[in-house]
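User: Just a sanity check before I run the rest of the batch. Below are the structure tokens for the first item. I only need the designed sequence back.
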């Protein structure tokens, strides 16, 4: 049975697919709908559920009706191979997150190529989300904190944990850190 997080993520992925189909950036849609760019980002990430009025205002910016929105079923991406330059960037600051695939609708897993520049950090405040995640360090060193456990990982080292446990990633050492990771279900 789907939980609230699944429903929020479905709504967010549906909004993202319709926005992209209309050829709009998050910023352009936010401007048209008179909402903040971060509001669109949070909805698409499944981290917030808008009121009906707010959703209607956002959909007017595409434009699409509420009934069309809920009837819309995005096409699952059928691409099998991805060139390095085609991986969409979803990170920010000193943390690069290159996602395999542009459309996560209908997918059970998210795969990322993560690059942490020198001193990059996911933030002092640890975060959690409904998923499981794991990864392998390809190069460099990263300090991973999961709950009250903390470890510095280097090339070939790996991690796997329940993402509901608050966690944090922080680059340490003299070179950037590269990780290949997977998360299920997708969380961005």
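Assistant: Here's the designed sequence for the first item:
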């Amino acid at each position: 049975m789907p939980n609230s997080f699944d429903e929020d993520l479905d709504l967010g992925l549906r909004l993202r697919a319709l926005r992209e189909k209309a050829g709009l950036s998050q910023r352009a849609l936010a401007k048209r709908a008179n909402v903040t760019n971060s509001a669109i980002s949070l909805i698409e990430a499944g981290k917030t559920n808008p009121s009906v009025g707010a959703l209607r205002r956002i959909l007017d910016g595409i434009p699409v009706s509420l009934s069309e929105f809920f009837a819309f079923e995005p096409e699952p991406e059928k691409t099998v191979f991805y060139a390095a330059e085609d991986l969409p960037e979803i990170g920010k600051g000193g943390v690069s997150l290159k996602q395999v695939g542009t459309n996560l609708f209908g997918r059970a897993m998210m795969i990322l190529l993560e690059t942490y520049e020198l001193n990059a950090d996911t933030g002092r405040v640890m975060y959690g989300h409904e998923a499981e995640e794991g990864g392998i360090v390809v190069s460099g060193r990263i300090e991973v904190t999961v709950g009250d456990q903390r470890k510095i990982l280097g090339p070939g080292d790996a991690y796997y944990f329940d993402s509901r446990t608050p966690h944090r990633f922080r680059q340490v050492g003299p070179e950037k850190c590269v990780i290949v990771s997977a998360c299920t279900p997708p969380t961005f």
